[in-house]
Known about the structure:
It is found in: Endoplasmic reticulum lumen. The chain is 34% helix and 19% strand.
Amino acid sequence: xxxxxxxxxxxxxxxxxxxxxxxxxxxxxxxxxxxxxxxxxxxxxxxxxxxxxxxxxxxxxxxxxxxxxxxxxxxxxxxxxxxxxxxxxxxxxxxxxxxxxxxxxxxxxxxxxxxxxxxxxxxxxxxxxxxxxxxxxxxxxxxxxxxxxxxxxxxxxxxxxxxxxxxxxxxxxxxxxxxxxxxxxxxxxxxxxxxxxxxxxxxxxxxxxxxxxxxxxxxxxxxxxxxxxxxxxxxxxxxxxxxxxxxxxxxxxxxxxxxxxxxxxxxxxxxxxxxxxxxxxxxxxxxxxxxxxxxxxxxxxxxxxxxxxxxxxxxxxxxxxxxxxxxxxxxxxxxxxxxxxxxxxxxxxxxxxxxxxxxxxxxxxxxxxxxxxxxxxxxxxxxxxxxxxxxxxxxxxxxxxxxxxxxxxxxxxxxxxxxxxxxxxxxxxxxxxxxxxxxxxxxxxxxxxxxxxxxxxxxxxxxxxxxxxxxxxxxxxxxxxxxxxxxxxxxxxxxxxxxxxxxxxxxxxxxxxxxxxxxxxxxxxxxxxxxxxxxxxxxxxxxxxxxxxxxxxxxxxxxxxxxxxxxxxxxxxxxxxxxxxxxxxxxxxxxxxxxxxxxxxxxxxxxxxxxxxxxxxxxxxxxxxx
Length: 626
Ligand code: ADP
Ligand code: MG
């Protein structure tokens, strides 16, 4: 094309496309899910803009917020069209090729190790999955702020963009034409497409139509036998088309009564494939487990085989009304703790009265709960204000508070229903979970392995909920027998007269088990918690007490084990030695030299002062590995 401008794909994108094209991955269906998801996102965006400016929707068909699918068997083209926000020329260049998203290289890596394309949407590169089934793709797009453009590429490292002077004007939105590969001809079968759309569009909040062909009986004059009627295949909507036909045949019938015969003809009409229902508006009792799982998958773009670990679906009433569904994913996303303090990856979708507003609202949940997926739909928030004004709305504080409570309850329940967690619990409570036992078994340990760090960050950051979060804390200890245990369980095992909760921090459990700091405590049968995650050092600066008990780092000054009756005599008899020793080490290196009862076999040990950094903390600060 004479007006085409050529561009090269950004290197990582190009690599990704190569991998997709050459993939032997059998589940190629996923491209459709990605395209529908993009169409739905684009429709959400224009609908959001229309809240403050009705004009943006345009008139007539252009204003219809819908998705259309067409098949062209002869040309082997599958077309998906939306009337969403569309893309400007600059959008096409940036979003479809020249700017690699942060997930691009992560996904390339994942592809090379697992070969599983299923999670492509999670990495923000779902569009490129079109090359699983097509060798040539055209994207025609019209944004309100620009002319209509065509993006096209044969995935050969380059793409071209031209001002569109030959296709029918779209009004607004995007049309994607997939020129299907020979081995992907099944995507021209209407039945296949219908099945896939139904499967992938269950939770899409816009109508999806397919240009379906239908065999109909038509009466034609017996003698002249003129074949097809032009009207039959016109692009008018189905209802109109049928009405016209009906009128016509009646007229003909009453006036002339010619001899007629019936013949079969195919006509096309737009067939609606989904019912646009919002799952969160339904009563939780009516929603099945399978529906929640599927809803989670479409929300989180997580199409693995695992179910979410837990969910909570509720309605908040009172001053601020909203409905919400929260999920704990089965796995942490690849970048959960990447630049935790610099970015906010909010994962809840915010709707106001069924209208999607944003999924980048960081006022809904605190950072440490960013691993949750879900959705909030509020009737209290105003619809026709800017995102910035919403962000500052006073109701958000209440919503956030309630969401945190519900989220922590949901997590607590994972533990409560997990039979592995129930040791030391009252028998009746365990019985309640009944038949689900097998399914719930080990779920909390799983949760902890994926998201334990988030709970710890919560203890550090959220003073209001610190105690609730501390209940969710798990760790190993000198008595936990290789399993995870909780503070409540620790307390239930405390020795008579034991006042403090003992812990030790370090690199690994194996290393800590050999620590001389434990000698005496072990011998006296005291339990000591192992904290081996770098974040634990910070955690213990914030977690001062639990259930009225103080925490004592056993490698620090101030450890009291039972009664120190002999201590006084010993102190006296070794007075000269300790004095000499302190002088010999100089006061810059040590604060004091003391007699201790914390050791058993080891003659002496270096202890950190009460407010100083532990040796482990020194190590962490040196390597800066939070
Ligand atoms: P993601 O949807 O996660 O952002 P994709 O690779 O699926 O990643 O899409 C990349 C980008 O291309 C989108 O973020 C969007 O800006 C743009 N895009 C894709 N499809 C459409 C569409 N149908 N309408 C408007 N923009 C689109
Ligand atoms: Mg997408």
